[in-house]
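quick one
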Amino acid sequence: MLLAANQEWQARARAEVLEICKDNLPDADMLRNMKTLTMVIQETMRLYPPVVFVIRTALQDLKFKGITIPKGMDIQIPIPIVQQNPDLWGPDAHQFNPRRFAKGIIGSSTSPQAYMPFGMGARVCAGQHFAMAELKVIVSLILSKFSFSLSPAYHHSPRFGLVVQPGNGVSLHIRRVS
Ligand code: HEM
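structure w/ protoporphyrin IX containing FE:
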C-alpha cells in the first residue's frame, strides 16, 4: 500500500531490484545488497508495526519516573505510539520517509530504543532476520514483475486483529513491467 501510494519510492526500489538481480531469483548476497528495499520495509514497519504491543511483567515492586509498578503487574508497550512520536522521529514522524533509515536503525531516531517492530531485549523476535529475508524476497519479486498504484476504491482503515491489517483490503491497479 505504501509503495502504491509513493510511486517515487516504488520506482527506486524496483530499479535497485532489477540492477541487483537482473533476470535471476534473489539469493542471500543480493538480498543483503538491497539497501533501498531494506529502508522501505523498515519504514513500513515503523508506521505499521504488525505487532502493536509487547508486554512485560514486573517481577518485583519498582518505581519508574515517580510511578509505582507493583510486582506482578503487566506493562503494555505500545509500539506504534513509540514509533510515531515526533519527539523521537522529528516533525515528519507520521509520514512515509524511508530516507530516515539511510544510515541504519541506530541513526534513524534520537533513541536506539525507539524502533521495535520485532520487540526488544532478551525476548526479541527469534525470527526477525528470517522475516526480513522473506519480506525482501516477496516484495522484490513483485516489484520485478509489476508496477502498482492505489485504486480509487482503496479506503485507508488499518485495523488491529491478531496483527495490524488493512480493514478493507488493499485495492490496487496492477500492470506488468516485464
Ligand atoms: C514481520 C514479521 C514479524 C514481526 C513483526 C514479529 C514481531 C515479534 C514481536 C514484537 C515479538 C515479541 C518480542 C518481545 O516481546 O520483545 C516476537 C516474538 C517472537 N517471534 Fe516474531 N515477528 C515476525 C516474524 C516472525 C517469524 C517469521 C518467526 C519464526 C520463524 C518469529 C518467531 C518469533 C518467536 C519464536 C518469538 C518469541 C521470542 C521469545 O519470547 O523469546 N517471528 N515477534
